């Protein structure tokens, strides 16, 4: 961007400035010996054209809406339409969460985001012994299609996009939502939303899983394949770095491990025989936005640049939509403090500004009281108003890539790209040339855990030593005598949920239940397969029958029967008995039996959870 003569003149001028202007000020020192980001990336005092001397405007920056998308995925960005304001919500019963949905949309929210309770996340009914004490506590309880109907009562799902933050039982919730659309007469190709369904990050950070990594990956790919055919406006996976950052990763680790997971899914889809330009446009990403505003902007820009290049050069993507990284952002929950909770409004505002200036497509702003409990209505409204003020009053939404061209931002973007790609290449090497195998190797070997653990430990050491200031925690502390009002889940939630679940089980179609009964496992599967062809099928029914039962993976069996149960078309006999029959008849191949045994070894997550409770959760 600058020729050699210009750079020589700038260097000479910089040396003169240091000697004549800067040095006299440095006699009194600066307020720190070292300045660094939250990720401990050291930043310079000043950036000049020399720091970006190798930057190629066309190749590295370009224009918004064109490769490499550094400056944004769309040409007009927020001048055309602001980002989707999508506040994460869910607690108690479906009725209570539906009321919160309506409250948020009435206050100007433009998209929905659903939080589920732990039993729903793990595929357990509310009446399961392991669910006791957890029903409706950290999200909404959803046991059946009836809950889903109540959850979206009065909401036009043909007009609003809905996000579902759920993973092990994600295909089941997806099937329910499709069933709900079918009931309402909404064409499947019109429903919009996002399913998190990112199982690889579960093994790296969040730790919610039911079956091992490889079969979990198969189920994710099943869902992507179905979505590409049936729900082309619905994102079947949201590849998530948010949880990695919350676990303590640096910004570069968050970006690198998230992109690696995305590339692993892409490779698995390609191995399945899918066309990259059919599935890649459905990929969505989910990032954290932390306090170091310039680091975060650089991270988002670097991710877009890397994704565009890798999808084209490594995986042969040709369609622009396949190379265009789109992402949701949530402000950093880890940064919220229980002390002086109103300070969290400021933190959230800074983080939201970083997301907007970094070009996010949708945004959740945390509520100031979330370090204490699920957010109150007042706190939720303040969080939503934060986004609205940024959009309508700050001017941040009026300029496309407002930080683009800053010497500091461009240098930080380049540095971030280099660090991210170093991690990605290391993962690829672990997989002998494939990202997928590198990720699947890194999970059991503890690679990701070690990297994140070390970063988290180093950060906490800096906080404890006072090198990293947390206002209200290790600096500017006050005596606090009052506690804010917090939301408390009604203790009657569980009883209400159990009554509805009991009614569903009592009132369901006994004839449909009977069709699934019988002594042979193949009969149960045949009926399930017929239904899956209607709702979440992968191929024609005759092809399934041609390959036979032995060719079905356990995870496919779970997906098929669980999706079936979502519509109460087929209940089958007790799923645990089905599992035992499958074993007894020796119809599973050695790999499938191994998966069952592996599931049996997962502490409380026994085989009946895999083939029983995941299915039974929807009966």
Question: How would you describe the overall organization of this protein?
Answer:
51% of the residues lie in helices and 6% in strands. It is α/β, with parallel strands linked by helices. It is built from 26 helices and nine strands. Strands 5-4-3-2-1-9-8-7-6 form a nine-stranded parallel β-sheet. The radius of gyration is 26 Å and the shape is globular. Residues 516-521 and 527-619 have low confidence and may be disordered.
Main traits of this protein?
619 residues, 9-stranded parallel β-sheet, 26 helices, 9 strands, globular
Give a brief description.
This protein has 619 residues and is of the alpha/beta class. Helices cover 51% and strands 6% of the residues.
Give a topology summary.
Blueprint: H1 4-26, H2 57-61, E1 84-89, H3 94-106, E2 111-115, H4 118-121, H5 145-151, E3 162-165, H6 170-183, E4 193-195, H7 199-206, H8 213-230, E5 234-235, E6 237-240, H9 242-246, H10 251-272, H11 276-279, E7 283-289, H12 293-313, H13 320-323, E8 327-331, H14 343-357, E9 362-364, H15 377-392, H16 407-430, H17 435-445, H18 447-464, H19 493-507, H20 510-515, H21 521-534, H22 541-547, H23 554-566, H24 575-584, H25 590-600, H26 607-616
